[in-house]
Design brief:
alpha+beta; seven-stranded mixed beta sheet; 17 strands; about 40% helix
Protein backbone atom coordinates (compact mmCIF):
# COMPACT_ATOMS: atom_id res chain seq x y z
CA UNK A 1 0.00 0.00 0.00
CA UNK A 2 1.07 3.62 -0.36
CA UNK A 3 0.13 6.40 2.06
CA UNK A 4 0.15 9.39 -0.25
CA UNK A 5 -0.31 12.04 2.44
CA UNK A 6 2.65 10.93 4.58
CA UNK A 7 4.90 10.52 1.54
CA UNK A 8 4.02 13.98 0.24
CA UNK A 9 4.62 15.43 3.70
CA UNK A 10 8.14 14.02 3.95
CA UNK A 11 8.86 15.09 0.35
CA UNK A 12 7.72 18.63 1.15
CA UNK A 13 9.95 18.73 4.23
CA UNK A 14 12.96 17.65 2.16
CA UNK A 15 12.57 20.06 -0.77
CA UNK A 16 12.16 23.26 1.26
CA UNK A 17 15.32 25.32 0.49
CA UNK A 18 17.74 25.51 3.43
CA UNK A 19 20.76 27.81 3.19
CA UNK A 20 22.82 26.46 6.08
CA UNK A 21 24.73 23.29 5.19
CA UNK A 22 24.79 21.95 8.77
CA UNK A 23 21.02 22.38 9.11
CA UNK A 24 20.48 20.68 5.75
CA UNK A 25 22.61 17.69 6.87
CA UNK A 26 20.69 17.51 10.15
CA UNK A 27 17.42 17.50 8.23
CA UNK A 28 18.55 14.53 6.14
CA UNK A 29 19.78 12.64 9.21
CA UNK A 30 16.36 13.10 10.83
CA UNK A 31 14.63 12.06 7.59
CA UNK A 32 16.41 8.68 7.46
CA UNK A 33 14.67 7.05 10.48
CA UNK A 34 11.40 8.74 9.48
CA UNK A 35 11.77 7.28 5.99
CA UNK A 36 12.43 3.80 7.39
CA UNK A 37 9.35 4.09 9.63
CA UNK A 38 7.28 5.27 6.65
CA UNK A 39 8.55 2.36 4.56
CA UNK A 40 7.44 -0.06 7.33
CA UNK A 41 4.12 1.75 7.58
CA UNK A 42 3.55 1.35 3.84
CA UNK A 43 4.44 -2.35 3.92
CA UNK A 44 1.97 -5.12 4.74
CA UNK A 45 4.01 -6.17 7.77
CA UNK A 46 2.00 -6.34 11.02
CA UNK A 47 2.17 -3.46 13.51
CA UNK A 48 5.48 -3.42 15.36
CA UNK A 49 3.55 -3.66 18.62
CA UNK A 50 2.56 -7.24 17.69
CA UNK A 51 6.24 -8.26 17.70
CA UNK A 52 6.81 -6.61 21.07
CA UNK A 53 3.76 -8.45 22.40
CA UNK A 54 5.37 -11.81 21.60
CA UNK A 55 8.67 -11.99 23.53
CA UNK A 56 8.74 -15.77 22.86
CA UNK A 57 10.29 -14.89 19.50
CA UNK A 58 13.54 -14.32 21.39
CA UNK A 59 13.59 -18.03 22.26
CA UNK A 60 13.88 -19.05 18.59
CA UNK A 61 17.12 -20.77 17.75
CA UNK A 62 19.76 -18.64 16.01
CA UNK A 63 19.55 -20.77 12.86
CA UNK A 64 15.78 -20.34 12.67
CA UNK A 65 16.05 -16.55 13.12
CA UNK A 66 18.51 -16.43 10.21
CA UNK A 67 16.14 -18.52 8.10
CA UNK A 68 13.25 -16.16 8.85
CA UNK A 69 15.40 -13.13 8.07
CA UNK A 70 16.27 -14.62 4.70
CA UNK A 71 12.58 -14.97 3.82
CA UNK A 72 12.12 -11.22 4.09
CA UNK A 73 14.61 -10.66 1.27
CA UNK A 74 13.12 -10.71 -2.22
CA UNK A 75 16.16 -10.96 -4.50
CA UNK A 76 14.20 -9.81 -7.55
CA UNK A 77 13.32 -6.60 -5.72
CA UNK A 78 16.95 -6.21 -4.60
CA UNK A 79 18.13 -6.61 -8.20
CA UNK A 80 15.53 -4.14 -9.47
CA UNK A 81 16.56 -1.68 -6.76
CA UNK A 82 20.21 -1.99 -7.76
CA UNK A 83 19.34 -1.29 -11.41
CA UNK A 84 17.33 1.78 -10.38
CA UNK A 85 20.20 3.01 -8.21
CA UNK A 86 22.67 2.76 -11.07
CA UNK A 87 20.19 4.49 -13.40
CA UNK A 88 19.70 7.25 -10.83
CA UNK A 89 23.44 7.83 -10.36
CA UNK A 90 23.85 8.03 -14.13
CA UNK A 91 20.86 10.28 -14.92
CA UNK A 92 21.37 12.56 -11.90
CA UNK A 93 24.41 14.05 -13.66
CA UNK A 94 22.12 15.75 -16.23
CA UNK A 95 18.58 15.72 -14.83
CA UNK A 96 16.96 17.07 -11.67
CA UNK A 97 15.26 13.82 -10.72
CA UNK A 98 13.66 15.37 -7.65
CA UNK A 99 11.27 17.20 -9.98
CA UNK A 100 10.13 13.91 -11.54
CA UNK A 101 9.79 12.29 -8.11
CA UNK A 102 7.57 15.09 -6.81
CA UNK A 103 5.45 15.05 -9.98
CA UNK A 104 4.87 11.32 -9.60
CA UNK A 105 3.91 11.74 -5.93
CA UNK A 106 1.50 14.57 -6.74
CA UNK A 107 0.01 12.52 -9.58
CA UNK A 108 -0.52 9.54 -7.31
CA UNK A 109 -2.06 11.83 -4.70
CA UNK A 110 -4.52 13.32 -7.18
CA UNK A 111 -5.43 9.84 -8.44
CA UNK A 112 -6.02 8.55 -4.91
CA UNK A 113 -8.07 11.53 -3.79
CA UNK A 114 -10.12 11.43 -7.01
CA UNK A 115 -11.00 7.81 -6.25
CA UNK A 116 -11.99 8.72 -2.71
CA UNK A 117 -14.13 11.64 -3.88
CA UNK A 118 -15.81 9.44 -6.48
CA UNK A 119 -16.56 6.76 -3.90
CA UNK A 120 -18.10 9.35 -1.56
CA UNK A 121 -20.24 10.87 -4.33
CA UNK A 122 -24.00 10.37 -3.84
CA UNK A 123 -24.31 8.46 -7.11
CA UNK A 124 -21.97 5.74 -5.86
CA UNK A 125 -22.64 5.84 -2.14
CA UNK A 126 -24.42 2.69 -0.87
CA UNK A 127 -27.65 3.65 0.88
CA UNK A 128 -27.84 2.03 4.29
CA UNK A 129 -30.91 1.03 6.21
CA UNK A 130 -30.40 -0.84 9.44
CA UNK A 131 -26.82 -1.60 8.40
CA UNK A 132 -27.76 -3.27 5.10
CA UNK A 133 -26.77 -1.87 1.66
CA UNK A 134 -29.43 -0.77 -0.85
CA UNK A 135 -30.76 -3.98 -2.49
CA UNK A 136 -30.12 -2.43 -5.92
CA UNK A 137 -26.43 -2.32 -5.11
CA UNK A 138 -26.13 -5.80 -3.62
CA UNK A 139 -24.48 -8.58 -5.56
CA UNK A 140 -26.54 -11.71 -5.21
CA UNK A 141 -25.04 -14.52 -3.17
CA UNK A 142 -25.50 -18.24 -4.01
CA UNK A 143 -28.81 -19.71 -2.88
CA UNK A 144 -27.03 -22.33 -0.78
CA UNK A 145 -24.90 -19.76 1.05
CA UNK A 146 -25.43 -19.34 4.82
CA UNK A 147 -28.25 -16.82 5.60
CA UNK A 148 -25.93 -14.19 7.07
CA UNK A 149 -23.70 -14.44 4.00
CA UNK A 150 -26.66 -13.64 1.76
CA UNK A 151 -27.53 -10.68 3.98
CA UNK A 152 -24.04 -9.17 3.76
CA UNK A 153 -23.24 -9.85 0.09
CA UNK A 154 -20.71 -7.55 -1.54
CA UNK A 155 -21.62 -4.05 -2.65
CA UNK A 156 -21.12 -3.61 -6.38
CA UNK A 157 -20.16 0.05 -6.39
CA UNK A 158 -17.43 0.85 -3.91
CA UNK A 159 -16.39 -1.26 -0.94
CA UNK A 160 -18.14 -1.96 2.34
CA UNK A 161 -17.11 0.53 5.00
CA UNK A 162 -16.14 -0.09 8.60
CA UNK A 163 -19.72 0.27 9.82
CA UNK A 164 -20.97 -2.48 7.52
CA UNK A 165 -18.09 -4.86 8.25
CA UNK A 166 -18.18 -4.30 12.02
CA UNK A 167 -21.93 -4.90 11.95
CA UNK A 168 -21.46 -8.09 9.92
CA UNK A 169 -18.84 -9.40 12.37
CA UNK A 170 -21.01 -8.61 15.39
CA UNK A 171 -23.98 -10.26 13.70
CA UNK A 172 -21.87 -13.37 13.07
CA UNK A 173 -20.76 -13.72 16.68
CA UNK A 174 -24.28 -13.04 17.95
CA UNK A 175 -25.72 -15.82 15.80
CA UNK A 176 -22.89 -18.20 16.76
CA UNK A 177 -23.53 -17.61 20.46
CA UNK A 178 -27.00 -19.11 20.02
CA UNK A 179 -25.77 -22.29 18.32
CA UNK A 180 -24.78 -25.47 20.12
CA UNK A 181 -24.65 -29.27 19.83
CA UNK A 182 -25.82 -31.55 22.61
CA UNK A 183 -24.19 -34.94 22.99
CA UNK A 184 -26.51 -37.86 23.81
CA UNK A 185 -27.22 -38.65 27.45
CA UNK A 186 -26.07 -42.26 26.98
CA UNK A 187 -24.11 -44.28 24.44
CA UNK A 188 -24.81 -47.81 23.17
CA UNK A 189 -23.33 -50.76 25.00
CA UNK A 190 -19.85 -51.86 23.99
CA UNK A 191 -16.57 -50.08 24.44
CA UNK A 192 -14.76 -48.03 21.85
CA UNK A 193 -12.17 -45.26 21.86
CA UNK A 194 -12.07 -41.82 20.21
CA UNK A 195 -8.66 -40.59 19.11
CA UNK A 196 -8.43 -36.91 18.16
CA UNK A 197 -5.21 -36.38 16.20
CA UNK A 198 -4.32 -32.69 16.33
CA UNK A 199 -1.53 -31.75 13.91
CA UNK A 200 0.23 -28.41 13.93
CA UNK A 201 0.94 -26.81 10.52
CA UNK A 202 -1.01 -28.81 7.95
CA UNK A 203 -3.51 -27.24 5.53
CA UNK A 204 -4.89 -28.17 2.12
CA UNK A 205 -2.72 -25.42 0.65
CA UNK A 206 0.40 -26.98 2.22
CA UNK A 207 -0.53 -30.43 0.88
CA UNK A 208 -0.98 -29.02 -2.62
CA UNK A 209 2.31 -27.14 -2.38
CA UNK A 210 4.28 -30.35 -1.70
CA UNK A 211 2.17 -32.71 -3.85
CA UNK A 212 0.63 -34.71 -0.98
CA UNK A 213 -3.05 -33.81 -1.34
CA UNK A 214 -3.83 -37.27 -2.75
CA UNK A 215 -2.01 -39.23 -0.04
CA UNK A 216 -3.66 -42.65 0.57
CA UNK A 217 -4.48 -41.63 4.15
CA UNK A 218 -7.30 -39.37 2.93
CA UNK A 219 -8.74 -41.82 0.41
CA UNK A 220 -9.26 -44.39 3.18
CA UNK A 221 -11.22 -42.08 5.48
CA UNK A 222 -15.00 -42.36 5.88
CA UNK A 223 -15.66 -38.63 5.84
CA UNK A 224 -13.52 -35.74 4.59
CA UNK A 225 -14.40 -32.08 5.21
CA UNK A 226 -13.37 -30.20 2.07
CA UNK A 227 -14.04 -26.67 3.40
CA UNK A 228 -13.29 -26.81 7.11
CA UNK A 229 -12.21 -23.57 8.77
CA UNK A 230 -9.94 -23.92 11.82
CA UNK A 231 -10.82 -20.25 12.56
CA UNK A 232 -7.30 -19.36 13.78
CA UNK A 233 -3.68 -19.71 12.72
CA UNK A 234 -2.11 -20.33 16.14
CA UNK A 235 -1.90 -23.62 18.03
CA UNK A 236 -3.28 -22.76 21.46
CA UNK A 237 -6.49 -21.10 20.22
CA UNK A 238 -6.97 -23.84 17.60
CA UNK A 239 -6.97 -26.65 20.17
CA UNK A 240 -9.15 -24.62 22.55
CA UNK A 241 -11.71 -24.21 19.76
CA UNK A 242 -11.69 -27.99 19.29
CA UNK A 243 -12.14 -28.53 23.03
CA UNK A 244 -15.17 -26.16 22.95
CA UNK A 245 -16.57 -27.64 19.74
CA UNK A 246 -20.06 -28.17 21.20
CA UNK A 247 -20.81 -24.44 21.01
CA UNK A 248 -20.74 -21.93 18.16
CA UNK A 249 -17.62 -19.98 17.22
CA UNK A 250 -16.68 -17.39 19.83
CA UNK A 251 -14.40 -14.33 19.63
CA UNK A 252 -10.74 -15.01 20.38
CA UNK A 253 -10.81 -13.33 23.80
CA UNK A 254 -13.74 -15.50 24.92
CA UNK A 255 -11.54 -18.62 24.61
CA UNK A 256 -9.77 -17.50 27.78
CA UNK A 257 -12.95 -16.97 29.75
CA UNK A 258 -15.11 -19.70 31.36
CA UNK A 259 -17.76 -21.17 29.06
CA UNK A 260 -20.92 -23.12 29.75
CA UNK A 261 -20.14 -26.70 30.74
CA UNK A 262 -22.10 -27.97 27.74
CA UNK A 263 -19.50 -26.40 25.41
CA UNK A 264 -16.59 -28.59 26.55
CA UNK A 265 -16.32 -31.60 24.26
CA UNK A 266 -13.99 -33.70 26.41
CA UNK A 267 -15.88 -33.02 29.64
CA UNK A 268 -19.09 -34.19 28.00
CA UNK A 269 -17.34 -37.30 26.67
CA UNK A 270 -16.13 -37.96 30.20
CA UNK A 271 -19.73 -37.73 31.41
CA UNK A 272 -20.56 -40.49 28.90
CA UNK A 273 -17.96 -42.80 30.42
CA UNK A 274 -14.86 -41.96 28.37
CA UNK A 275 -11.58 -41.68 30.26
CA UNK A 276 -10.03 -38.50 28.81
CA UNK A 277 -6.31 -38.34 28.16
CA UNK A 278 -3.74 -36.06 26.53
CA UNK A 279 -0.56 -37.14 24.73
CA UNK A 280 2.00 -35.03 22.87
CA UNK A 281 5.25 -35.52 20.96
CA UNK A 282 6.72 -32.33 22.50
CA UNK A 283 6.97 -30.75 25.94
CA UNK A 284 4.37 -28.06 25.27
CA UNK A 285 6.38 -25.31 26.96
CA UNK A 286 6.52 -22.81 24.08
CA UNK A 287 4.08 -19.91 24.65
CA UNK A 288 2.56 -21.86 27.55
CA UNK A 289 0.75 -24.24 25.18
CA UNK A 290 0.36 -27.05 27.73
CA UNK A 291 -0.80 -24.65 30.44
CA UNK A 292 -3.49 -23.35 28.08
CA UNK A 293 -4.79 -26.84 27.38
CA UNK A 294 -4.92 -27.76 31.06
CA UNK A 295 -6.28 -24.48 32.40
CA UNK A 296 -8.64 -23.39 29.61
CA UNK A 297 -9.40 -26.80 28.09
CA UNK A 298 -9.64 -28.68 31.40
CA UNK A 299 -7.41 -31.55 30.25
CA UNK A 300 -5.37 -33.89 32.48
CA UNK A 301 -1.57 -34.06 32.66
CA UNK A 302 -0.17 -35.36 29.35
CA UNK A 303 1.65 -38.51 28.41
CA UNK A 304 5.10 -37.51 27.09
CA UNK A 305 7.44 -40.15 25.61
CA UNK A 306 10.47 -38.69 27.37
CA UNK A 307 12.13 -42.12 27.44
CA UNK A 308 12.44 -42.03 23.63
CA UNK A 309 15.26 -40.42 21.70
CA UNK A 310 14.10 -37.18 20.01
CA UNK A 311 13.55 -37.43 16.24
CA UNK A 312 13.58 -33.66 15.67
CA UNK A 313 14.86 -30.52 17.33
CA UNK A 314 12.23 -27.81 17.62
CA UNK A 315 12.46 -24.26 16.32
CA UNK A 316 13.15 -23.27 19.94
CA UNK A 317 15.67 -26.08 20.57
CA UNK A 318 13.23 -28.34 22.42
CA UNK A 319 12.98 -32.13 21.76
CA UNK A 320 10.31 -33.53 19.41
CA UNK A 321 9.64 -37.26 19.51
CA UNK A 322 8.70 -39.54 16.63
CA UNK A 323 4.94 -39.63 15.99
CA UNK A 324 4.60 -43.35 15.30
CA UNK A 325 6.69 -44.30 18.33
CA UNK A 326 4.74 -41.92 20.55
CA UNK A 327 1.31 -43.08 19.39
CA UNK A 328 2.27 -46.75 19.42
CA UNK A 329 3.68 -46.51 22.96
CA UNK A 330 0.50 -44.82 24.17
CA UNK A 331 -1.59 -47.49 22.41
CA UNK A 332 0.34 -50.32 24.06
CA UNK A 333 -0.29 -48.72 27.45
CA UNK A 334 -3.95 -48.24 26.58
CA UNK A 335 -4.37 -51.95 25.80
CA UNK A 336 -3.19 -52.76 29.31
CA UNK A 337 -5.92 -50.54 30.74
CA UNK A 338 -9.26 -51.95 31.89
CA UNK A 339 -11.14 -48.77 30.90
CA UNK A 340 -14.02 -49.52 28.55
CA UNK A 341 -13.74 -46.23 26.69
CA UNK A 342 -10.93 -43.74 26.15
CA UNK A 343 -10.97 -40.29 24.55
CA UNK A 344 -7.46 -39.16 23.61
CA UNK A 345 -6.24 -35.84 22.29
CA UNK A 346 -2.89 -36.42 20.59
CA UNK A 347 -0.99 -33.29 19.61
CA UNK A 348 1.95 -33.27 17.19
CA UNK A 349 4.25 -30.38 16.21
CA UNK A 350 6.37 -32.43 13.79
CA UNK A 351 5.47 -30.09 10.90
CA UNK A 352 6.06 -26.79 12.73
CA UNK A 353 8.16 -24.30 10.82
CA UNK A 354 11.86 -24.33 11.73
CA UNK A 355 12.09 -27.89 13.06
CA UNK A 356 15.32 -29.74 12.27
CA UNK A 357 16.27 -33.39 12.18
CA UNK A 358 18.02 -34.37 15.43
CA UNK A 359 21.57 -35.70 15.11
CA UNK A 360 23.54 -37.98 17.42
CA UNK A 361 25.79 -35.14 18.60
CA UNK A 362 22.79 -33.23 19.96
CA UNK A 363 22.61 -30.86 17.00
CA UNK A 364 20.36 -30.86 13.97
CA UNK A 365 20.26 -30.69 10.20
CA UNK A 366 17.75 -29.34 7.72
CA UNK A 367 14.47 -31.26 7.52
CA UNK A 368 12.34 -30.03 4.58
CA UNK A 369 8.59 -29.78 5.15
CA UNK A 370 7.79 -32.23 2.35
CA UNK A 371 10.01 -34.89 3.98
CA UNK A 372 8.44 -34.43 7.40
CA UNK A 373 4.87 -34.26 6.03
CA UNK A 374 5.27 -37.36 3.88
CA UNK A 375 6.69 -39.30 6.83
CA UNK A 376 3.95 -38.12 9.21
CA UNK A 377 1.13 -39.08 6.83
CA UNK A 378 2.79 -42.45 6.21
CA UNK A 379 3.07 -43.00 9.97
CA UNK A 380 -0.59 -42.12 10.55
CA UNK A 381 -1.48 -44.60 7.81
CA UNK A 382 0.67 -47.25 9.51
CA UNK A 383 -0.82 -46.50 12.92
CA UNK A 384 -4.33 -47.02 11.56
CA UNK A 385 -3.24 -50.44 10.29
CA UNK A 386 -1.97 -51.21 13.80
CA UNK A 387 -5.36 -50.26 15.23
CA UNK A 388 -7.10 -52.51 12.70
CA UNK A 389 -4.94 -55.46 13.70
CA UNK A 390 -5.80 -54.94 17.38
CA UNK A 391 -9.53 -55.58 16.68
CA UNK A 392 -10.32 -52.70 19.05
CA UNK A 393 -13.13 -50.34 17.98
CA UNK A 394 -11.74 -46.84 17.47
CA UNK A 395 -13.06 -43.60 16.00
CA UNK A 396 -10.20 -41.60 14.45
CA UNK A 397 -10.74 -37.83 14.17
CA UNK A 398 -7.99 -36.08 12.19
CA UNK A 399 -8.19 -32.35 12.91
CA UNK A 400 -5.14 -30.18 12.11
CA UNK A 401 -4.70 -26.95 14.08
CA UNK A 402 -3.76 -24.69 11.17
CA UNK A 403 -1.48 -24.62 8.14
CA UNK A 404 2.26 -24.04 7.86
CA UNK A 405 1.87 -21.09 5.47
CA UNK A 406 4.32 -22.57 2.97
CA UNK A 407 3.27 -19.99 0.38
CA UNK A 408 4.03 -16.34 0.94
CA UNK A 409 1.77 -13.54 -0.28
CA UNK A 410 1.84 -9.75 -0.44
CA UNK A 411 1.27 -9.43 3.28
CA UNK A 412 3.10 -12.34 4.89
CA UNK A 413 6.34 -14.19 4.28
CA UNK A 414 6.32 -17.97 4.14
CA UNK A 415 5.87 -19.39 7.63
CA UNK A 416 4.28 -16.23 9.01
CA UNK A 417 0.79 -16.74 10.47
CA UNK A 418 -0.02 -13.36 12.00
CA UNK A 419 -3.08 -13.00 9.75
CA UNK A 420 -5.26 -16.16 9.67
CA UNK A 421 -5.73 -16.28 5.90
CA UNK A 422 -7.85 -18.89 4.16
CA UNK A 423 -4.75 -20.74 2.96
CA UNK A 424 -3.72 -21.21 6.59
CA UNK A 425 -7.06 -21.99 8.26
CA UNK A 426 -8.47 -24.24 5.51
CA UNK A 427 -7.43 -27.60 6.99
CA UNK A 428 -8.01 -31.29 6.06
CA UNK A 429 -10.37 -32.65 8.72
CA UNK A 430 -11.47 -36.28 8.37
CA UNK A 431 -12.86 -39.20 10.40
CA UNK A 432 -12.54 -42.98 10.17
CA UNK A 433 -14.19 -45.89 11.98
CA UNK A 434 -11.76 -48.66 12.85
CA UNK A 435 -13.00 -52.27 13.21
CA UNK A 436 -16.67 -51.47 12.63
CA UNK A 437 -19.07 -54.22 11.52
CA UNK A 438 -19.40 -52.48 8.16
CA UNK A 439 -16.44 -53.98 6.31
CA UNK A 440 -17.26 -52.49 2.90
CA UNK A 441 -14.35 -50.78 1.09
CA UNK A 442 -13.89 -47.24 2.34
CA UNK A 443 -15.02 -44.57 -0.11
CA UNK A 444 -14.95 -41.20 1.67
CA UNK A 445 -17.98 -38.94 1.70
CA UNK A 446 -16.87 -35.36 1.07
CA UNK A 447 -18.53 -32.50 2.97
CA UNK A 448 -18.40 -29.61 0.49
CA UNK A 449 -20.25 -26.98 2.53
CA UNK A 450 -18.40 -24.39 4.62
CA UNK A 451 -17.99 -25.92 8.06
CA UNK A 452 -16.09 -25.67 11.31
CA UNK A 453 -15.96 -27.30 14.75
CA UNK A 454 -19.72 -27.24 15.29
CA UNK A 455 -20.22 -29.52 12.26
CA UNK A 456 -17.54 -31.89 13.56
CA UNK A 457 -19.17 -31.97 17.00
CA UNK A 458 -22.58 -32.66 15.45
CA UNK A 459 -21.19 -35.57 13.44
CA UNK A 460 -19.54 -37.05 16.55
CA UNK A 461 -22.84 -36.67 18.40
CA UNK A 462 -24.68 -38.58 15.67
CA UNK A 463 -22.09 -41.37 15.78
CA UNK A 464 -22.46 -41.61 19.56
CA UNK A 465 -26.27 -41.74 19.43
CA UNK A 466 -26.45 -44.83 17.22
CA UNK A 467 -24.60 -48.10 17.44
CA UNK A 468 -22.53 -47.19 14.38
CA UNK A 469 -19.82 -49.74 15.08
CA UNK A 470 -22.41 -52.51 15.18
CA UNK A 471 -24.24 -51.60 11.97
CA UNK A 472 -23.61 -53.93 9.06
CA UNK A 473 -24.10 -51.04 6.65
CA UNK A 474 -23.40 -47.41 7.55
CA UNK A 475 -25.13 -44.84 5.34
CA UNK A 476 -22.55 -42.09 5.57
CA UNK A 477 -24.42 -39.73 3.27
CA UNK A 478 -27.47 -39.89 5.50
CA UNK A 479 -25.30 -39.57 8.62
CA UNK A 480 -23.59 -36.43 7.30
CA UNK A 481 -26.68 -34.76 5.80
CA UNK A 482 -27.49 -31.19 6.88
CA UNK A 483 -24.47 -30.67 9.11
CA UNK A 484 -24.18 -27.11 10.49
CA UNK A 485 -22.55 -24.66 8.10
CA UNK A 486 -20.30 -21.79 9.19
CA UNK A 487 -19.35 -18.47 7.69
CA UNK A 488 -15.64 -17.93 7.08
CA UNK A 489 -14.42 -15.82 9.99
CA UNK A 490 -10.96 -16.40 11.49
CA UNK A 491 -9.32 -14.60 14.37
CA UNK A 492 -6.04 -14.32 16.26
CA UNK A 493 -5.27 -11.97 19.10
CA UNK A 494 -5.74 -8.51 17.62
CA UNK A 495 -6.38 -9.73 14.04
CA UNK A 496 -9.64 -10.71 12.34
CA UNK A 497 -10.16 -11.98 8.79
CA UNK A 498 -13.71 -12.15 7.44
CA UNK A 499 -15.01 -13.22 4.06
CA UNK A 500 -17.59 -10.70 2.86
CA UNK A 501 -19.09 -10.90 -0.61
CA UNK A 502 -16.43 -13.36 -1.84
CA UNK A 503 -13.63 -11.04 -0.71
CA UNK A 504 -11.45 -11.28 2.39
CA UNK A 505 -11.18 -8.27 4.68
CA UNK A 506 -8.85 -7.90 7.66
CA UNK A 507 -8.87 -5.75 10.76
CA UNK A 508 -5.66 -5.46 12.74
CA UNK A 509 -5.44 -4.11 16.26
CA UNK A 510 -9.00 -2.80 16.27
CA UNK A 511 -8.26 -0.44 13.37
CA UNK A 512 -10.02 -0.03 10.05
CA UNK A 513 -10.93 -2.91 7.77
CA UNK A 514 -8.93 -3.31 4.55
CA UNK A 515 -9.33 -5.78 1.72
CA UNK A 516 -6.69 -8.49 1.95
CA UNK A 517 -4.21 -7.97 -0.90
CA UNK A 518 -4.02 -10.71 -3.50
Amino acid sequence: KFDVLYNLAIAAALIIPVRWRALNMLRHLIAIPIGIALFYHDSWLPPFSRLLAQPEVLSFSFGYLLELLGRFINWEVVAAGFVLLVAYLYLAQWLRLTSFTVLVLVGMGLHTWTDIAGWLAPANQPQLMAGVPDPALIQAAPVDAPPATRQVAAVRNGKPDNTILNSALQSFYSSEAARSVELPSTVPEGGFDILFISICSLSWSDLEEVGLRDHPLFSEMNVVFDRFNAATSYSGPAVLRLLRANCGQSPHAALYEPADESCYLFQNLQRLGFDTELAMNHNGQFQGFLDELRNEGQLPAPYLPSQLRPALTGFDGSPIWDDLQTMTTWWLNRQQSTAERKALLYNSITLHDGNREATADGGGRTAPFVTRASKLLDQLHTFIKTLEQSKKKVLIVLVPEHGAALKSDKMQIAGMREVPTTDITHVPVAIRLINAADSAPTVPVHISSQSSFLALSELISRILKDDIFGQSRVDWRDLTADLPTSEWVSENEGTVLMNYGDRDYIRIGGGSWVEYPR
